[in-house]
């Protein structure tokens, strides 16, 4: 018997967050993304092994990606996210 296993990271966009970008200073152009890495067995995701949060600036002149902590992400979400 052999096992097929691996890790898969899936980014999930949570929505747009307010506040200025740390790099370019533009307001409201940041997308909050949760990256969930799961351990999978036979291509079936089983166990969540890591969750990371990043904010991506969608100003075309900037495009910065900032890694943030879970508590920072939670406070951004409390501040309100726009999903449209
Ligand atoms: Zn920016």
Can you walk through the features of this model?
This protein has one helix and five strands; from the N terminus they run E-E-E-E-H-E. By secondary structure, it is mainly beta. It is elongated and about 55 Å long. It starts with a strand and ends with a strand. Strands 4-3-2-1-5 form a five-stranded antiparallel beta sheet, covered by helices on one side. Strand 2 and strand 3 form a beta hairpin. The protein binds zinc ion.
Describe the strand arrangement of the main beta sheet, using strand numbers: 4-3-2-1-5
How many discrete domains?
1
Taking all Cα atoms into account, the compactness measure Rg is 16 Å
Order of helices and strands: EEEEHE
Q: Approximately what portion of the residues adopt beta-strand conformation?
A: over 45%
Overall pLDDT? 92
The number of strands is 5
Helix share, percent: 10-25%
Q: Please report the distance between the alpha carbons of the first and last residues.
A: 47 Å
Largest sheet: 5 strands, antiparallel
Name the bound molecules.
zinc ion
